[in-house]
Design a protein that fits this description.
single chain; mainly alpha; 8 helices
Length: 171
């Protein structure tokens, strides 16, 4: 729970009807379209909002939401391609996003599903070394994936799949 400053209270008291606020980096900010889009779960709305200027946390949340929604439908080639594209974008921007997340969450990074989704997609696409690299990047950030063995535990099964693929040559 964030402490409300006098400035926060003034901002709320002077808000127009229908304006909503949220806390970002310890400050009260107006909810923007990016925030509303990722909360909606509507993929088309999120895609329309992806290039809008926003707070780093909302940028993170919209990218992760797009990856999550497209990952669920990854059997469709257009969703699979979009999932990979946005996941790579999210991971590339994560070095900028991570400090803001750490600040807002008292030094701890949350689970970031983009990393595990991209590692799985790359493994399915037989891009084993790229999948391992995604796991290594997640480890660098000390991210958790919700499993006991974490991202470190994902690496050996990926390498075993690569070895089996190379031995059998199966596609």
């Amino acid at each position: 729970m964030h402490h409300m400053s006098d400035e926060d209270i003034d901002q709320i008291m002077n808000a127009k009807k229908g304006e909503a606020f949220t806390h970002r980096l310890g400050k009260l900010v107006k909810v923007d379209e990016v925030n509303r889009a990722w909360k909606s779960g509507d993929l088309n709305r999120m895609l329309k909002a992806i290039n809008l200027k926003t707070h780093l946390l909302d940028r993170h949340l919209i990218l992760m939401a797009i990856v999550r929604e497209t990952y669920k439908k990854r059997e469709k080639p257009d969703h699979r391609k979009l999932c990979k594209k946005v996941a790579v974008l999210h991971i590339n921007e994560f070095k900028t996003i991570a400090p803001a997340l750490r600040y807002d969450l008292n030094g701890v990074l949350p689970r970031v599903s983009t990393f595990q989704h991209l590692a799985t997609l790359l493994t399915e696409d037989k891009r084993f070394q790229d999948a391992v690299r995604v796991c290594q990047i997640a480890l660098k950030y000390e991210l958790k994936d919700g499993t006991m063995s974490g991202f470190q535990g994902r690496i050996n099964p990926i390498l075993k799949k690569q070895q089996k693929f190379e031995q059998t040559g199966s596609h």
